[in-house]
Amino acid sequence: MQKLRITSNKQTSIPMGGYNVEYAGLNEGLSPRQNPSHNVKKISILPLIFLIFYEVSGGPFGVEDSVKAAGPLLALIGFLVFPLIWSVPEALITAEMGTMFPEDGGYVVWVSSALGPYWGFQQGWMKWLSGVIDNALYPVLFLDYLKSGFPALGDGYPRILAVIFLTIALTYMNFRGMTIVGWVAVLLGVFSILPFIIMGFVSVPKIDPSRWLVVDLHMVDWNLYLNTLFWNLNYWDSISTLAGEVDNPKKTLPKALFYALILVVCGYFFPLLVGTGAVPLNRDLWTDGYFSEIAKLVGGVWLRWWVQAGAAMSNMGMFVTEMSSDSFQLLGMAERGMLPEFFAKRSRYGTPLIGILFSASGVVLLSQLSFQEIVAAENFLYCFGMILEFIAFVRLRMTHPAVTRPYSIPVGTTGAVLMCVPPTILICVVLALSTVKVMVISVFAILIGLVLQPFLKYTEKKRWVKFSTSADLPDLQNSHEDNESLVCE
């Protein structure tokens, strides 16, 4: 078993697939992606909070199915209890691991450090594909909210053209840089949240608390209920693939995750409380876009239009932040030599040009699936990726408990294991409830990743495609040999 002996230069080393990753300044100084030579503005805490908000949520648009599936009481309980079971552990792990490895590879680097580069690649493949599938939802949700006012957008060529136009326009915003994306997220977030605050005030005279207690356990669609909760409360780890773009991530990232967690939970629970309490229950009506109808009933047509506009703006925010995460993940993998070198190419705005194009193409191809099919497939792939993250988190806690962590969850090894048990059980339940169609498609996608990594290594060996490791990042193969003040035995 390896032992880390750290001397007074305060550098730390983490095994990375059999090698050593040395972060000069993991405790002090600059992270690899904070090199002053990079003339790219870093993300500050306020934009980062709203980037996380949009990575995970974007507001209550899309939670309507929880009421349709289980009724008001279970929907309200779900958005209070589920964050404790899933969101809090995932956010805490993201804070610890993201500050240990402050680079754009994010969770790919976490898994590679604990389980080796092969499984790191599998993590990257599953999470990227899951993210692209997730991003395909937002044009669908956007058009679902608009089709009541513009029926032509419901199906056919107008819908397809609208999806392509939206994808191109929002992709260009990603191309222009993370600073723009971050502050656009702030503005869109405020605009999307405000109508629900107003709806809460104007609905007070119509609130009937007895409506919150309605439940019928014999009429619960558990698959739809859990998938809706899971989809609306996951992806806390996605921000880790942008850690290299964050200003002072070891301090900024944990704070931003904490504030974003509060914002997300309140952003779900309060609108559900208002909507289920102010309007007589008809579960069949609680589907995508129903909040706009509730706004009309309690506040009038003007509030309905604001909610619809907020939904549109929210989907724009979720799209650009998810695409940023997905594309920077590909850039981070290329900088680690896991993908061909051209994936690491940055535009003049510092954005991953090829990664953005690949992610946008995937969105267009997958956007023709139905909402429920997209959510189920995304959740299935995401579950496997999270299992690898939990294993990596616990393994690094067990094998290297003494390594300095800029942010450390205040639990020991046993506590780390116990913290991962409830979300792991939930993952097993979500996987067990998947339909055969979703399971077959998802397993096929996983199998592609299992053979894709050896194929890429073969192309590297044959020199068909150029691979390289960024000089700005720690040398995984030689850092333990070059650093005489840090010895691994």
Automatic annotation (TrEMBL):
Localization per record: Cell membrane
Gene Ontology CC entries for this record: plasma membrane
Keyword Secreted tagged: no
Top-level taxon of the source organism: Eukaryota
Membrane topology, as annotated: Multi-pass membrane protein
Transmembrane region(s): 43-63, 69-93, 105-121, 156-173, 180-204, 224-244, 256-281, 349-367, 379-396, 408-432, 438-456
Keyword Zinc: no
Family that this chain belongs to: Belongs to the amino acid-polyamine-organocation (APC) superfamily. Polyamine:cation symporter (PHS) (TC 2.A.3.12) family.
Name the UniProt record assigns to this protein: Amino acid permease/ SLC12A domain-containing protein
